[in-house]
Amino acid sequence: MSQYTSALNSSDPSIPSRLSDDEQRTLLRQLRSEIIERHRPHISEGAGPIRVMARIVAELEQTCRQHNIDDQIIRAEVVNRTIGDIDLRQAVECEGEEGGPEDYRILADELGIALPGEELYHYTATGETYYWLRDQMLECERLLLSQGFDPRVYDIYGIGNPVLRGWLAQEMGRWGIEVTHQNVHLSLGAMDGIDNVLRGVAHIYRTRQVEQVGILFPEPGFGVPEWQALSYGYQIHRYKTSAEHRFKLTGAQLEQILAEHPDIHVFYLTITNNPTAFAYSQAELEDLHAVLGSFRAKGREILMLADLAYIGTGKPEEDQARMATFINPEVLQHTIFVSSFSKTHTLTGERFGWVTCGDPNIAAGIAVSWSNGLAALPGEWQLRFMAYYRLLQTRPWLGEKLRRFYRLRRTQLVKQLQEINEELHLFEQIYIDDDATVYNWSKLNEGIDAFALFEKTGIAGVPGSGFGYDDEYIRFSIGVIPIIRGDL
């Protein structure tokens, strides 16, 4: 048995590898091809393409380590750009003075994610924010108790404490959305919020004896709400947008869809899109609102479920203009907003989300989904949510710094893809985003798909089918893996 074959067949991590760097790379690429071949037929099964691609990467990394391939080679040959989470513990970028506003290595410490004394990239966390958040949790619990709300006992309404809900109503107020705590329900992230809304709205229509409720999903788009809506009995209507309109639904298209499908009563719209990273402009949103208003004027009720997951990642003045289109009372009354700190502030694991209904009667009607689902929201989680809200209010520069960080990573990713394309000619179009979200959306050349790109470059993205679209398109995340200049 050759030395190479022996290493290939060995799964004992205690046996040191005797392979050279070139031999390790050859072995890794062979393992990568084998895993791709094994998973390719199952890309659309089970958890869907996003998680399948992420699982392929995790399995490949584990297999490489079992064969004693050096971590440095693994990092160079296996680049996970599937899941959109931002891991600040892995941030290495420092564009200016150490400890300054362009030093992104310290964001984990500044946001209280890093543990006191934790070693980051050439930086030891102070833990100042980590401890500050815990002090704030104590203060917030005392505040709640002083107002007659005990987060440690059963909450019969299940929608969260009124103090935090009031703060989040004020948060919506900065966009010009004037509501009270009665319009706001807490949720365990945006996905939980969407799930509760869809279940609650379905309940409202059932009480009105409406037998079939249709929901419209423009595509490409975030796929989880489609699965949620299907599980609650909605009639799913999908509309494939085009590159001509930057993958956004136009007013004329919406008008035609609603005319052809009178059962549509819910319209799900991600204002800044995942996966495309393109955002609806003020004028584009006003066109959609006008169409919806014309159908409502004829007696047809249509709710917009507006996903704001990435509002806050773009240019503030442009986000403000987008949100201003919802201030009109007629628009606001028929809108349900879903918000989260997951992507805007890299707090994905914390699951801080909330739902805002323009109409307090709708808020009351869908509350049944909370009380009969979660029963009560975790008390400790609510206290941490309150502490983080205070942190972001007292240190607004954190949001500005994160936006600059996202812009840096997106710019570097596009540059890397362009350099790869000059050599390998894998892309027909590498799209430039609207300076928002944590993604890049690009079109592959004919004959290339996500698997082929992964095999040729080691970069794992998510095929367009993961978002209800064509597999000639691919989405990359700027999340966990940084791009270091000079290392492309």
Mean pLDDT: 91
Structural class: alpha/beta
According to CATH, what is the class of the largest domain? Alpha Beta
Spatial order of the strands forming the largest sheet: 4-10-9-8-7-5-6
User: If you consult CATH, what is the topology of the largest domain?
Assistant: Aspartate Aminotransferase, domain 2
**How many individual β-strands?**
15
Give the helix level as a range of percent.
40-55%
Q: What would CATH call the homologous superfamily of the largest domain? A: Type I PLP-dependent aspartate aminotransferase-like (Major domain)
SS field, number of helical segments: 18
The CATH architecture term of the largest domain is 3-Layer(aba) Sandwich
* Shape field: globular
Largest sheet: 7 strands, mixed
Strand content: 5-15%
Kindly, what is the distance between the CA atoms of the first and last residues, rounded to a whole number of angstroms?
37 Å
From the alpha carbons, calculate the radius of gyration and give it in angstroms.
Answer: 24 Å
Low-confidence stretches: 1-11, 13-17
The count of domains is 2
Region (Disordered): 1-23
Domain Aminotransferase class I/classII large: 212-478
Family: Belongs to the class-I pyridoxal-phosphate-dependent aminotransferase family.
Organism: Dictyobacter halimunensis
